[in-house]
Structures are given as C-alpha cells and as structure tokens.
C-alpha cells in the first residue's frame, strides 16, 4: 500500500519552515526594538536633564511604533515556545486524551480570534494608508499608518504558527503536565 502522507507532508514542512523564519525575524525585530526604544527614551531624558532640550516626537514614536512592535511581533514566538499564559487548575486532573483535544480546541479558537483581529487590523491599515494617517507631535507630523501594518504582521505570524501547530500536531509536551524529571 502506498503512503499517501508524503504529498501532504512536503507542503506542511514548507509551511513550517516559513513559519520558523517569520517567527525568528519578528522576534529579532522586537528584541532590537526594545534596545532602540531604551536608547531613544534614555537619550531624550538625558538631553532634557542636562540641556533642557527634548527629542521631538519621542512619546509618539514610543506609543505608535515601539510599543506596537514590542507588543505584537513576539506573539508568534511565545506561541511557538508554548509560553502564553494558561490557567491549568482543572486541566491537570483530566486524562491525557482530553487535554490533547482541549489543546486542539483552544488552538483552533485562538487561531480564529487572532485571524479576526488580523483581518480587522489589515482593514484598518488599508483605510489609514489610504488617507495617510498622521499624528502631530508638536514639531512634525508623524505617519502612524505603517504601525497598523506592523500589528497585522504580528497577528498574521501568530495565525501562521497556530495553523502549523494545528495541522502538523507536533506539539510541545502538554503545558498542563510537568516534564519528567531530568527532561528540562
């Protein structure tokens, strides 16, 4: 009998490899953003303290760019590593089969909700790109429409990781059960 899973396995591997690359890139961008944000805010505070000069747009850049990047881009990495917050008081006493089904249902629900959020963010990004949304900083107009696309990118990466996990069913050990001794 022929193995019919081979034609399906190749696209899943390709999708998984794409997800891995996107997760790595978004995680690096978020990590670099944290460093740049710290340097930017520190420079602004230092200039204000020493020379009574402010860096124009610091608050707006932090609010509309840095925080969006730091908040949305790492979602897919957290999902990949199984590091999202979970409440597991009841699940620890359930049989393993039930926890596997429950985890699948949670992943499908999470993918659906995150997909809806991604769709809403893309719709917002299209509208705001169309009219070139800006925020006045007091010194200049800061275009904020690109930040909407960055938030959608983070949600899209999360949906992709969830989809790969759902399809491939290659999961981390159940987050509801402790790892065997010496496994960590």
TrEMBL record:
Keyword Transferase tagged: no
Subcellular location as annotated: Cell inner membrane
Membrane topology: Multi-pass membrane protein
Chief location: membrane
Name this protein carries in UniProt: TRAP transporter small permease protein
Parts forming coiled coils: none
Function: Part of the tripartite ATP-independent periplasmic (TRAP) transport system.
Ranges annotated as spanning the membrane: 21-42, 62-78, 99-126, 146-167
Subunit structure: The complex comprises the extracytoplasmic solute receptor protein and the two transmembrane proteins.
InterPro entries per the UniProt record, alphabetical: DctQ, TRAP_DctQ
UniProt record similarity statement: Belongs to the TRAP transporter small permease family.
Domain Tripartite ATP-independent periplasmic transporters DctQ component: 37-170
Keywords (A to Z) from UniProt: Cell inner membrane, Cell membrane, Membrane, Transmembrane, Transmembrane helix, Transport
């Amino acid at each position: 009998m022929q193995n019919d899973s081979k034609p399906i396995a190749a696209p899943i591997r390709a999708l998984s490899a794409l997800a891995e690359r996107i997760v790595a890139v978004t995680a690096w961008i978020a990590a670099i953003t944290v460093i740049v944000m710290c340097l930017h805010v520190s420079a602004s505070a230092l200039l204000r303290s020493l020379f009574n000069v402010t860096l124009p747009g610091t608050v707006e850049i932090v609010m509309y760019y840095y925080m969006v990047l730091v908040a949305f881009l790492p979602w897919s990495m957290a999902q990949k590593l199984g590091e999202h917050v979970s409440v597991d008081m009841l699940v620890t006493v359930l049989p393993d089969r039930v926890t596997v089904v429950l985890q699948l249902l949670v992943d499908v629900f999470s993918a659906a909700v995150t997909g809806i959020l991604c769709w809403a963010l893309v719709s917002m990004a299209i509208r705001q790109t169309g009219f070139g949304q800006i925020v006045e900083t007091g010194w200049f107009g800061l275009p904020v429409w690109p930040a909407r696309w960055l938030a959608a990118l983070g949600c899209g990466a999360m949906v992709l990781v969830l989809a790969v996990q759902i399809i491939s069913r290659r999961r981390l050990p159940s987050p509801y059960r402790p790892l065997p001794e010496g496994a960590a």
